[in-house]
């Protein structure tokens, strides 16, 4: 399946955005150094993601990333055809996945959109016995319409219930928070470093209809 010119895949009843952020080459080294330092200072940093908001740290590279995420959200909403004003805040956390680490199937409750920015992705994998169809360091997304592929007709472009991407350093992905996804195991001695985030809508009374 091909993305359109804005990097958006029309998947099932959802849209997934993938793009490469300009300037990532300069920022990623600084982000990796900061994340590795935080990992040294904080026990189980990756799994205790609710304890601190990575995107609130005062740091030039994080400031750059926050601006890029917000720009990506704006472009995503425009691609949806949304013409009304939305207000949101970002919540982010850093991940270091070492050999064998993965993230089980999950979605992101209590948020509107979710995404991941990739700082470092292993360039090679260990030679291991077993299956040849493993997809180390990839991320898979799943059709939210349970068993919808069972009723697919011939040449239906949405017949596949799973969509898998292998990101690269500098890749940002953005998707609806309800969408289930799975991060495949890292099978390299090199760390996979990423920054995940949620887009949380700010509440306004105008969201409620008038009650008489």
CATH topology value: Jelly Rolls
Widest sheet: strand ordering: 1-2-8-5-10-3
In CATH, the architecture is Sandwich
Q: Helical residue percent? A: 10-25%
Question: Which value, in Å, is the CA radius of gyration?
Answer: 18 Å
Structural class: alpha+beta
Beta strand %: 25-35%
Let me know the largest β-sheet: 6 strands, antiparallel
State the name of the first-level CATH class: Mainly Beta
State the domain count. 1
CA(first)-CA(last) distance: 49 Å
Average pLDDT for all residues:
91
Q: So, the CATH homologous superfamily?
A: q2cbj1_9rhob like domain
How does this structure look, described?
With 212 residues, the protein is of the alpha+beta class. It has one domain (8-124, 135-203): Sandwich (Jelly Rolls), CATH 2.60.120. The protein has 2 helices and 10 strands; from the N terminus they run E-E-H-H-E-E-E-E-E-E-E-E. It has helices spanning 24-41, 60-79, and strands at 8-11, 14-20, 88-97, 103-106, 113-120, 139-142, 162-165, 171-176, 181-183, 192-201. The relative contact order is 0.25.
